[in-house]
Amino acid sequence: MYCDLHNHLYGCLPPETLFRIGKSNPNPRWELYLDSFESAYGIKIKPQTFFEEYADSKTFKNLYHFREKAPFSHFQAKFNLIIALVKFDENEIREVTQDILLAHAQDKVSYAEYRLMFGKEENKEIFYSKLMASVEGLTLGEEKSKKEGMPIQGKLVMSLHRDLNFERHYDWMKNWMEKESLLKEYLVGIDFCHVEEGYPPKNKKQFFQSVLKDNRSEPSTALSILYHVGESFKDKTPFSAVRWVLESAENGAHRLGHALALGIDSDFFLGEERTELVSEAKDQTELELNKYETISSFGPYFTKKEIEDRWKELNQKEDSESITSIFDESKSQSLHTFQNYAMSQIAKTNVVIESCPSSNLYIGMLESHKDHPITRFLANDIKLTIGSDDPGLFGTTLSEEFAHAHTAGVREMDLETIRSQSFAYTSSKLSGRELN
């Protein structure tokens, strides 16, 4: 049996189900989809004739599925079709949660954590009612799966917005957990996803510390901290992207989503021009100066004088300025060393990396599954699990994701270890709510 620790509830919707839901929705929110899709793909969708034009299941599947190598903005444009077509009311959330849990059980998953995100400005009463609908759907899905001889345990992780109201929403949920036994049982973590560019993990350090303190004070309502990072990082150099992964782990996150930047082959970036804020370059250079001896012990690196000269140059610029550089062979060699250093530090923590092969192939724009860094993670003693991410959107299943990991070079015996160890990496166990 499998354990799926990284998937997004509505991203699990198969195309047939999404089409049915959308067709029965009298008021699709087309405005959330049309412009983003046309901007990404150059295709103008006509809402008036949409359900006639895409009535053929194959045609709709081709529109819906994200199975090309493209930036996160293209993925989001595809995901916006889900947001546009669903009603996202309590009854639908309850039904969708139940059905997806059953579908996972049929794919030999016996434990799954589902991530769900509400609006930044969601009304408190509506937030609560939708939250309760989702956990009620989990109970119904568990009951139905058990009756059909496929027992599964489902839990909920709430995805919070990186930029607004995450502290408020966290406080709401903690208070409700004290009053609602069902919520206390099924809500097990918080997650930060969506666009990561522009939201340095250092800005969440204080919040993470507050959550961890709450976990120690009241283990019965402890919540894991899950953090998408190192997945999409066009706004910075690969060095800073690796540092973001390291900072997220050191700040206390329990599981990290994707973390591609940490282990992807450094030659992948050869010839790229990267622009980042001076503030980011300063943070990176300061780390390199403070940890120079340790970093350079992992292989060839920039000379200390080079780093010191860069530091002097950066300190003559404003943090809000941008700087551009070309990624050459010298930088590739140093990046490989810096990745090894970062992995060694992460291996000393309890953090777990969530690898999602299909998602990483497409959004990470890898050449093939063989370019996935999962084998490098294993070689550096990184704890990891394999997740399906958005299996409906990617047209995959968790068992297929394990097969992709095998294609990436993971041995069968290691796949079995990952499968079995994943049950020790559940949110409740990592947060301290449940003893291993």
Helix-strand blueprint:
Layout: E1 2-8, H1 15-24, H2 34-41, H3 50-53, H4 57-64, H5 72-85, H6 90-106, E2 109-117, H7 124-147, E3 153-160, H8 166-179, H9 181-186, E4 187-192, H10 205-217, E5 224-229, H11 238-250, E6 255-258, H12 260-263, E7 273-277, H13 278-290, H14 292-296, H15 304-314, E8 322-326, H16 329-347, E9 352-355, H17 357-363, H18 374-379, E10 383-386, H19 391-394, H20 398-407, H21 412-421, H22 427-431
Parallel strand pairs: 1-2, 2-3, 3-4, 4-5, 5-6, 6-9, 9-10
Antiparallel strand pairs: 7-8
Describe this structure in words.
It is a single chain. Helices cover 52% and strands 13% of the residues. With 436 residues, it is of the alpha/beta class. β5 (224-229), α11 (238-250) and β6 (255-258) form a beta-alpha-beta unit. It contains 22 helices and ten strands. The two termini are 18 Å apart. The model has no long low-confidence stretch (mean pLDDT 97). An eight-stranded parallel sheet has the order 1-2-3-4-5-6-9-10. The protein has a two-stranded antiparallel sheet with strand order 7-8. It has helices at residues 15-24, 34-41, 50-53, 57-64, 72-85, 90-106, 124-147, 166-179, 181-186, 205-217, 238-250, 260-263, 278-290, 292-296, 304-314, 329-347, 357-363, 374-379, 391-394, 398-407, 412-421, 427-431; strands at 2-8, 109-117, 153-160, 187-192, 224-229, 255-258, 273-277, 322-326, 352-355, 383-386.
State the separation between the terminal residues, measured CA to CA: 18 Å
Question: How much helix is in the residues?
Answer: 40-55%
Percentage of β-strand residues: 5-15%
Number of helices: 22
Low-confidence stretches: none
Within the largest sheet, what's the order of strands?
Answer: 1-2-3-4-5-6-9-10
Structural class: alpha/beta
Largest sheet: 8 strands, parallel
Query: Judging from the principal axes of the Cα atoms, what is the shape?
Result: globular
Radius of gyration: 22 Å
Mean pLDDT: 97
Would you report the number of β strands?
A: 10
